[in-house]
């Protein structure tokens, strides 16, 4: 069998157009688009009814009517394969891009090659693009009952509740939608259409049958059909098809009974009996596939005039629906297609299976690998299905992020067949690792170990296969340690792997180098980490592993950052972003990790605007699947920028939100680090009791001279101790800081060393040992000056400002550090002047209105729409607690006591 032409990130074009039959449609004015939808008053219309009631036909009619120079319309037909969030997002973006090509480019870039993670970052990116659309837009989503995956439903939920005002949505479903619609209903933004509205009336049924049959039925016969079909459009369509080939119509009308499945089966039999043997065989065979074109039809039926037969089926209105504008691909009406498929399977089960396999192999040869696998699974052709999955799994997982697709297949494929291709289990374990499903990862690794044991007991063991499975399994274990932020375990596993598998493929060695470099970062062995990162870069380049290389660059930048080499970290990140643009289509997930580091660097260099720009680009991805270091840097920098702008409430709320997220993901380092930052700022505000309480609640015990300066808790506690105890016992604080300073110096962690020396200078000052404070500060600045550490001391300006002033007066004593002393003093004075000016301006009536931030303006606009606090928080991806802080600030700035008062003043000021 020839190797398939795998189509990466493919979009099924047929899903982007309304699919309707070619038969003449009956005009039904009562089902024209409602005035609320036409005028843009309603934001969502839901059309819910069982199959065959004409939902898609009506939606297609609305699509045609609404399109105009002032209204753009897009279409997406949903199917079961869209339960993969990556696939659904790709097709959703394609639908939007039919209106405006720029929409969703960043989303698509992130989906290419990314391990699937949370969807909120993607929705934020999509929201920004939708916000730039100036044309009223209506998106039609048909067959939404096909999707049940929580993340896909969350995407739809976000769209219908939080899209910009210019966007409207028409949703079609056979089942009641599992979506929160009550808010829209209360605000009268929702149109709901069900079975009663869609049912044919007696007059409509009479007109419809007359159109289909070319003449009118007796009114009594129409009434008889209405009694049996209850106005069900599909049943009437089937009746018309059956009656058109019957001479004794009255007998047929009298014979059939029942509704739903029995009616479809009966009428289907009648329709099939009206076809000649050749056409009947053709219909039953092509109905085995969800979509068909002339080439596939010819392959599975053996006919040479497939194109003509497809055209004849369309002309006879036998429920064949075109799926694209070119008339290449078609599908049967769902009900009828199901009947044809099952009828053939019951009568000729073996031949039916042979045709399904033949069609699946045709899809495979054409490069439609996913459809080929789905077809093979339907035919229970486990040999082809598992072989094709094994061949394509790395492409799907590592390059396209189709984790959910593999998970869906794994639910169908028999365990014994999957065991024949261990690479499937290896990649499945990898996919699961990016979700909170560690137990399932362990289950897959356990299964792989059982496979290994069986292979080893074989009479003639295949040592190459055994080694390949063992190597990949042990690599996965090491990667899992890294993803769970278990740095020491990751380091030990990586070292053992390298020793055991020196001849492994370069791609695998590149991945293990990332894990080992991360492990060395955890233990502060920076030189060893940088050395293995350099080796890993060579392995990645040798294996053309751009995806793994992007991760390696991120870890290398973290190593520089921990050492305190901020300039080097920035250079590595910028080079990494260039690589991502060139080889990973601007992959948002990877670039966001690098932006967290760039934000931290910019903040330390006192480049607040740059830091804000980077943090905005990083938070879109970090919140859901960023590793621990990215989460820490993102939340720390975001909070520090809020503190810098004197928005203390928001800063603390951000730290709380980060701690909560870290706890949910069981990342202790995130929780402890952000709690330490909170204690630090509480100490700066002299809120020592609150800092003490928080430190104790988080287990950040205060160190004594006997405590070893190692480990996460003691490292963070040494910093918290200063804030809590510095005023009541500075001597004890000095004693506690000394081993921490020595430890940092020994490891060459320059930023931490300089930071702790600055804290020591504060303690000396408070202990009335000013000469020692000046000497200690000079020592700190000798480390800081060449590395451009600024915010470390500017954030301590309340205490260090006096020390720096005294150094400036004794300029001759500190020639080496005087340039940075002057620079720090200029920044401190500038900040003091700005604070005084703000205080002066704020004393004037109404002056604070201009201080509303962009986010606060955005929240005001959502308040105006009548959204609840919960809905607003969900729409901008923050907790309700964080939103309450924002509302508190907004009310204060506007001089209002509540929501209604704030809205009145905001309208008066034309802020909304």
TrEMBL record:
One Gene Ontology MF term: DNA binding
Ranges for domain HTH luxR-type: 845-910
One annotated GO biological process: regulation of DNA-templated transcription
Keywords recorded for this protein, A-Z: DNA-binding, Transcription, Transcription regulation
Top-rank taxon: Bacteria
Secretion signal, residue range per the UniProt entry: none
Pfam families in the cross-refs: AAA_22, GerE, TPR_MalT, WHD_MalT
Alphabetized PANTHER family for the sequence: DNA-BINDING TRANSCRIPTIONAL ACTIVATOR DEVR_DOSR
Identification of the protein by name: HTH luxR-type domain-containing protein
């Amino acid at each position: 069998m020839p190797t398939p032409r795998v189509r990466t990130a493919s979009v099924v074009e047929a899903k982007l157009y309304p699919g309707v039959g070619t038969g003449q449609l009956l005009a039904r004015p009562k089902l024209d688009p409602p005035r609320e939808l036409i005028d843009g008053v309603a934001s969502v219309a839901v059309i819910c009814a069982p199959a065959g009631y004409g939902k898609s036909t009506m939606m297609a009619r609305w699509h045609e009517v609404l399109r105009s120079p002032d209204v753009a319309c897009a279409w997406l037909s949903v199917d079961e394969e869209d339960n993969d969030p990556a696939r659904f997002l790709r097709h959703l973006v394609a639908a939007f891009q039919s209106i405006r090509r720029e929409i969703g480019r960043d989303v698509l870039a992130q989906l290419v090659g990314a391990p699937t993670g949370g969807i909120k970052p993607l929705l934020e990116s999509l929201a920004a693009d939708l916000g730039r659309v100036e044309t009223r837009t209506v998106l039609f989503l048909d067959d939404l009952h096909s999707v049940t995956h929580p993340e896909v439903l969350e995407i739809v939920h976000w769209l219908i509740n939080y899209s910009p005002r210019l966007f409207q949505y028409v949703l079609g479903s056979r089942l009641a939608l599992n979506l929160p619609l009550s808010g829209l209903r209360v605000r009268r933004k929702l149109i709901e259409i069900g079975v009663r509205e869609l049912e044919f009336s007696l007059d409509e049924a009479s007109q419809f049958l007359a159109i289909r049959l070319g003449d009118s039925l007796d009114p009594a016969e129409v009434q008889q059909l209405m009694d049996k079909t209850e106005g069900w459009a599909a049943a009437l369509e089937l009746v018309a098809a059956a009656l058109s080939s019957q001479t004794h119509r009255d007998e047929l009308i009298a014979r059939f009974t029942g509704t739903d499945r029995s009616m479809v089966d009966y009428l289907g039999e009648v329709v099939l009996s009206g076809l000649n043997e050749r056409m009947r065989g053709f219909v039953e065979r092509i109905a085995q596939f969800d979509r068909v074109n002339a080439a596939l039809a010819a392959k599975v039926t053996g006919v040479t005039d497939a194109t003509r037969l497809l055209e004849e089926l369309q002309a006879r209105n036998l429920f064949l629906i075109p799926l694209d504008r070119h008339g290449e691909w078609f599908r049967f009406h769902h009900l009828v297609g199901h009947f044809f498929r099952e009828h053939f399977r019951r009568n000729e089960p073996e031949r039916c299976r042979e045709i399904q396999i033949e069609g699946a192999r045709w899809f495979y040869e054409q490069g439609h690998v996913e459809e080929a696998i789905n077809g093979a699974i339907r035919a229970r052709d486990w040999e082809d299905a598992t072989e094709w999955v094994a061949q394509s799994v790395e492409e799907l997982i590592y390059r396209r992020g189709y984790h959910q697709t593999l998970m869906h297949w794994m639910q169908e494929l028999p365990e014994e067949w999957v065991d024949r291709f261990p690479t499937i289990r290896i990649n499945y374990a990898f996919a699961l690792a990016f979700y909170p499903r560690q137990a399932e990862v362990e289950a897959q690794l356990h299964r792989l170990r059982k496979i290994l044991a069986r292979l080893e007991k074989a009479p003639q063991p295949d040592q190459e296969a055994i080694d390949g499975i063992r190597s990949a399994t042990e690599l996965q274990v090491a990667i899992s340690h890294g993803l769970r932020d278990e740095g020491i375990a990751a380091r030990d596993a990586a070292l053992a792997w390298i020793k055991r598998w020196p001849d492994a493929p370069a791609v695998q060695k590149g991945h293990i180098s990332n894990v080992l470099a991360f492990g060395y970062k955890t233990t502060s062995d920076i030189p060893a980490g940088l050395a293995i990162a350099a080796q890993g870069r060579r392995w990645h380049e040798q294996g053309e592993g751009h995806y793994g290389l992007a991760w390696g660059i991120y870890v290398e930048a973290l190593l520089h950052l921990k050492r305190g080499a901020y300039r080097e970290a920035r250079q590595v990140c910028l080079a990494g972003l260039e690589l991502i643009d060139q080889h990973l289509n601007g992959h948002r997930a990877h670039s966001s990790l690098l932006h967290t580091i760039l934000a931290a660097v910019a903040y330390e260099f006192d480049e607040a605007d740059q830091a804000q720009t980077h943090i905005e680009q990083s938070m879109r991805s970090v919140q859901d699947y960023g590793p621990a270091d990215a989460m820490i840097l993102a939340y720390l920098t975001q909070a520090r920028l809020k503190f810098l702008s004197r928005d203390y409430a928001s800063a603390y709320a951000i730290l709380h939100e980060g701690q909560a997220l870290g706890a949910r993901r069981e990342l202790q380092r995130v929780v402890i680090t952000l709690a330490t930052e909170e204690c630090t700022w509480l100490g700066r505000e002299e809120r020592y009791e609150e800092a003490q309480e928080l430190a104790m609640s988080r287990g950040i015990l205060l160190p004594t001279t006997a405590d070893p300066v190692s480990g996460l808790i003691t490292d963070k506690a040494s910093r918290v101790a200063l804030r809590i105890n510095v005023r009541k016992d500075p001597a004890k604080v000095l004693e506690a800081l000394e081993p921490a300073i020595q430890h940092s110096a020994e490891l060459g962690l320059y930023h931490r060393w300089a930071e702790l020396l600055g804290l020591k200078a504060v303690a000396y000052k408070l202990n009335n040992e000013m000469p020692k404070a000046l000497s200690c500060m000079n020592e700190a600045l000798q480390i800081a000056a060449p590395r451009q550490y600024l915010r470390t001391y500017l954030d301590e300006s309340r205490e260090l400002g006096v020390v720096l002033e005294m150094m400036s007066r004794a300029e001759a004593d500190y020639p080496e550090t005087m340039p940075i002393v002057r620079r720090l003093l200029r920044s401190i004075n500038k900040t003091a002047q700005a604070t005084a000016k703000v205080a002066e301006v704020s004393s004037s009536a109404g002056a604070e209105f201009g201080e509303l931030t962009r986010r606060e303006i955005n929240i005001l606009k959502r308040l105006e729409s009548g959204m609840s606090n919960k809905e607003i928080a969900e729409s901008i991806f923050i907790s309700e607690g964080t939103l309450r802080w924002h509302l508190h600030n907004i009310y204060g700035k506007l001089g209002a006591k509540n929501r209604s008062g704030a809205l009145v003043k905001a309208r008066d000021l034309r802020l909304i």
